[in-house]
Amino acid sequence: MSACVPARAADSDHAERAHPPHSPPPGRRRFRIAGADVSASIAVFLIALPLSLGIALATGAPLQAGLVAAAVGGLVAGRIGGSPLQVSGPAAGLTVVTADLIQHYGWRTTCAITVLAGLAQLGLGCLRVARGALAVSPAIVHGMLAGIGVTIAVAQLHIVLGGTPQSSVPDNLRALPAQLAQLHPAALSVSVLTLALLLLWPRVPGRLGRVCRMVPAALVAVAGATAAAAAAGLVLPKVDLPSWRNHALAGLPEGPVLGLAAAVLTTTLVCSVQSLLGAVAVDKLASARPGPAQVSRSDLDRELLGQGAANIVSGSLGGLPVAGVAVRSSANVHAGAVSRNSTMLHGVLVVIAALLLVPLLELIPLAALAALVMAVGIQMVSLNHIRTVTRHREVLVYAVTTLGVVTFGVLEGVALGIAVAVGVALHRLTRTRITHDEQEGVHHVHVRGQLTFLAVPRLSRALHLVPQGADVVVALDGSFMDHAAYETLHDWQSTHTARGGTVEITGRRAGVRIAEPAALASGHPAEGPEETDASEADCRCRPWTAWRNHQCERPQELMRGISTFQRNTAPLVRAELARLAREGQRPGQLFLTCADSRVVTSMITSSGPGDLFVVRNVGNLVPPPGAESGDDSVAAAIEYAVEVLAVRSITVCGHSGCGAMQALLDSHPDGARTPLRRWLQHARPSLERVGGPGGEPPRLAGRAPTDAAERLCLANVVQQLEHLRAHESVARALREGTLELHGLYFHVGEAQAYLLTERDGEQVFERVRAMDLAM
């Protein structure tokens, strides 16, 4: 019946339930701001205020321009942009670009260039090309930021020492010895105090540290240095905010057309790429944040429109260029913001400060702001980014981009980085090694690298070295093969097998049979160099599709799975398993977990053969020594792992939705003594830990357990670790310091692991996070 009710009638019925007939009619919906947004906006404002002044100082622009850009970034980009939690404003990544523009064209023309860059961003947003900006290599982006950071740090070092910076990094480096010979003690002392507070404030230990970290370090550093300078009576250059009546607005652009076009292009490129990459990074931070409330993902095209509108308004009002700012955005996310109201409210607070706090702002020494910006520049050279590009063999692209930005400028450095990145990609594409050798009568042709048309002549020469009728193994150690290479390999295989030879082709990285590229792209594997099994002729399944709950036309049977292993996986692991068979097993840890079919230990731990000694049982239980269970298998496995295998750690892993824990909650003391109930007696102490005064149950960091079953799962991990410590072999190894115990909780629905830790004497399961590669 309910399905036949019209939508309008259903809405009316819902309205009557929400507002009874005798209650007054609902008024207009009031605008409300969540408390989390209010607190987050205050935290972001306290960071943005000193940084905006410092970035304006570093560019040589009027200091009020930084406040204008911060306010416009919060109000305009915050309202229109597509990333609800990203905070926009004057960014350190734009410092070098803006300083160069001011030096060449003056302030009013720089504002006009900012407006034109905003119009260009609006055009790019309307063309919906935002995703294309993400195609820029991360090594180029990180190298650009590192180069800008070096430029900022070297320039601000002169102000820290009490001098005046030069126009370029080489000039600043040449002038540094003379500047060191003419130190200004007062400026240096204020700068050192600022840097010390920036470094030490987040590292205050204990509960006092948690309270201290509620106040941003940047604000504490600038405020502390300002108070110290005033108390000591130091005579220093200070912030000078002239009357807003004299504030310079944008003028008509003056200068050569090509130079202005290059300036607009540079500003557009840096603003857009930094904002879009920042939006992607904010999405990652927000999705990793605990709690049920999730913010919608960024609309990158709308974000580009919002940034363009903000730059138009900021440039028109005499403000600095605007872009998404990583420091303020991450602070906004970590402070708990839930909507764009936080960003907008922070812009309102900047406006209030710019109008009412001018006397306080004019007490800040310029040396304190210079030290703050210098620290930001140093942080832009990220060791994590350097390790990442080194691991991906892109350190050359990173280094060339960084040196190019430092030596020539941002646009020139990025162009150099793109050219080197293209060269590296072409080099990798053409660097293919093909070898041929014979072992025990079997000919091996090994292809290392991508197999393209450029490598076809070498491939043909290697294949023709194989005698007719010989047994051949062709190993393709690469992830790509184009049509020309496929045709060459396929034709040779057909000819060789027709003359009585055998051919086995393996793809060591892909782990699947080689197929024509077009067939793989369409999802229909064509007959490739390796013959298709008759039982799979009409099946489109891949090795992992069954695990992903894919429904094939025929059920996945055990023998078919074994056959797939023998054909696809066995060639990849045969050498490693042969080594383990010769040397014996030497696992590093004992992993004790539940027998639940959804808990795949090798997947959770990214382990392979020989890495883990695994014990699985119902409920991941460890019976204490001497328990009357009639089953010593777990104790025997523990003794064998510790005494014979000498494992270095033991992990007890529980999981969400554990049927054993639910059965324990549903059981009755007077129930039948089945084998399952007898076994679950070893989890009775876990039940007492949750419900009784015997112990404090552990908790999950960031959120409360969803129900009693999850609370019991968490407590059970802690309880089984206590049972584990009671075993003699474990206790002895712990005393000798040769063994570590770990507790792990795996949430199946979230695919998220939680590690048991001690926090202020309390047992807490902390979320294990992936490494953040974002900017």
TrEMBL record:
Compartmental location: Membrane
Classification via InterPro entries: Carbonic_anhydrase, Carbonic_anhydrase_sf, SLC26A/SulP_dom, SLC26A/SulP_fam, STAS_dom_sf
GO molecular function, one term: zinc ion binding
One Pfam family hit: Pro_CA
Domain SLC26A/SulP transporter: 36-400
Top-level division of the source organism's lineage: Bacteria
Cofactor binding: number and manner: Binds 1 zinc ion per subunit.
Keyword Metal-binding attached: yes
Protein name: Transporter
Organism of origin: Streptomyces calvus
